[in-house]
Amino acid sequence: MLSLTIPRVALRSAAAPRQFAAAASSASVRYASTKTLHDAVAEIVPAKREQFAELKSNYSESSLGEVKVANLIGGMRGLKCMLWEGSVLDAESGITFHGRSIPESQKELPTAADIGRTGAEILPESMLWLLLTGKAPTNEEVKQLSEQLAHAGKLPSYLEKIIDSFPKTLHPMTQFSSAVAALNHDSKFAEAYSRGMKKTEFWQPTLEDSLDLIAKLPAIASRIFYNVFGKGDGKQAIDTSKDLIENFTHQIGYGDSEGLIDYLRLYIAIHGDHEGGNVSAHATHLVGSALSDPYLSYAAGLNGLAGPLHGLANQEVLGWTLELQREVGKSPSDKEVQDYLWKTLKSGRVVPGYGHAVLRQPDPRFTALSKFCETRPELREDPIVQLVQRLSQLAPPVLKEHGKTKNPFPNVDAASGCVLYSYGLDQFKFYTVIFGISRAIGALPQLVFDRMLGLPIERPKSLSMEALKKIVAK
Fold it and tell me: Where is it found, in Gene Ontology cellular component terms (predicted)?
């Protein structure tokens, strides 16, 4: 748990943001003229509330489109009915984080090298700052945040005992979500709410819990990895001079792989937020709307992420790609690859890793991961990575000819698991846990915005088929 504390008087005072931020500095080195993340979030609260009040006052009755039966029975696909601050997903241009594309984020956000570590990729800490504040942090602010998270990353002894009590045969994602929920024991939000506090101050302990959880997720994941697969340091050791993902990679026993460390930095940063409608983000937001604390809310999100139609997709892609490689060999011709694609489609299966619920162009996250592969000699020469790159060229024409795919282009899952496998991280069941570390840096900041803006409990109207038929038959 973060060493930050919220004084009782601060919870009932307009000066709370400053007191709260001051407490944060005890967790790490405070750089001259450098804001803490708490300071930075506190600065944007008045403007965000003013913007929200204007929307509510002036545009509440403005239409965003009609709800059709197809929306109701089709998983609410495409309905504009959620407020989500961190990112917006456009069918043609892809994801943007507070208006910044992935390439723009890579240019603007501090990298490992910018805070004195080895590596060229953006840090998840940088993306977290952006998602919480809408602004790119300075190098010093990211370094301070990284150290703050490192200081908060150690697991409490009761949680270690809970994780160690799980049977090795229990799926890592089940263990992960259970451990996250158990941290509710230490929730600052739950404690403050039970004592009584102003609704306008809910965002403060929500932010504290969220940062505490983000700090501890790598150690939770690493302890599960050690217990289930017998790999890693067994202690979840944390070096406060290392960034979040550098520590995580050492904890799972891959600390000597510079390529994997930098890949995971990029992977975690760009997987973190993908607007609010996906299952893991939406589930976190939905449960949080009942004022459940961030630990309980994100545990719900992880349970959604564990589904085969969501977070398990990258391991399905990898399994299919390995099947392809076994059948056609490591140096197949284009025709052999195309024949296998047709074989898959004619058998009634889909080609995993292609298509997207929203996108109608290649996934910018796939593009970013592909470019990373091009910068690493060990990946350029790896047969499975080469096959993935060839598939990205050969599969779209086949899928277009097949005619049943709205988006024939690769999504992020087409590449993400294959690169982990190439670096020797071949425990498929652990892949979604890594995704779970990432999604927290998008879903949890939105909880802070939900509390900052005072959003109500989410409660859509439902209809039976008979009631629905009566309405549409009029």
Answer: mitochondrial matrix
Residue 69: inside a domain, yes or no?
A: no
| Residue 1 CB-half CA count within 13 A | 21
Task: Give me the active site residues, please.
Answer: 310, 356, 413
pTM score of the predicted model: 0.90
What average pLDDT does the chain have? Answer: 90
The whole-angstrom separation of Cα 230 and Cα 182 is 23
145 in a structural domain: yes
Which amino acid does the sequence have at 394? L
Parent domain of 239: 9-56+81-474
- Domain CATH code at residue 50: 1.10.580.10
Listed residue (310, 280, 307, 220) closest to 447, CA to CA: 280
Euclidean distance between CA atoms 169 and 192, whole angstroms? 37
Nearest to residue 306, comparing CAs of 133, 155, 432? 432
pLDDT band of residue 312 (cuts 50, 70, 90) is confident
Query: Coil, helix or strand for 44?
Result: helix
Q: Please, is 468 exposed, middle or buried when counting C-beta atoms within 10 Å of its C-beta (0-12, 13-18, 19+)?
A: middle
Mind listing the pLDDT tens digit for each residue in 211-241?
A: 999 999 999 999 999 999 999 999 999 999 9
Number of domains in the chain: 1
CA distance linking residue 456 with residue 285, whole number of Å: 11
Inside any domain, residue 75: no
